Amino acid sequence: MSLTQAEVEHIAHLARLELSAEELTRYRQQLSAILDYAARLQSVDTSRIAPTAGATLDAAPLRADEPVEGLDVDIVLRNAPQREDNQFRVPPVLE
To answer: For the domain with range 5-42, which CATH number is right: 1.10.3720.10, 1.10.20.60, 3.80.30.20, 1.10.8.60?
Structure first.
């Protein structure tokens, strides 16, 4: 599937990208190649493959959830740029 220059310009606009004419041409070629590859993948016959093939929970068993001692507050805040009352102090986002 070959993209047009206008389609690539529209995609760049949606992504808030300012592309030169050279970049538009290069990205048109690259995006078209990606879409061609995706189309080739869609043509692969997967009718004999089970929907959940390869997705097993037995492969990665979860560890036991055991409580452990937490870190010391002074160690945690050692490299904090600002701290207040044993907490990180961050500047306000909205004023």
So the answer is: 1.10.20.60
Instruction: Please name every residue paired with 88 in a beta bridge, in sequence order, or none if there are none.
Output: 83
Query: Where do the domains of the chain lie?
Result: 5-42
**Which long-range contacts does 78-83 make (Cβ < 8 Å, 24+ apart)?**
none
pLDDT for res 12: 94
* pLDDT tens digit sequence for 44-69: 998 888 777 565 656 667 788 899 99
Answer for the pair 34, 11: CB distance below 8 angstroms, yes or no. Answer: no
Dig out the tokens for 69 from the structure. Answer: 């001692």
Q: What is the pTM of this model?
A: 0.50
Residue labelled with tokens 């002074």: 74
Please, how many CA atoms are within 13 Å of residue 45, restricted to the half-sphere of its CB? 2
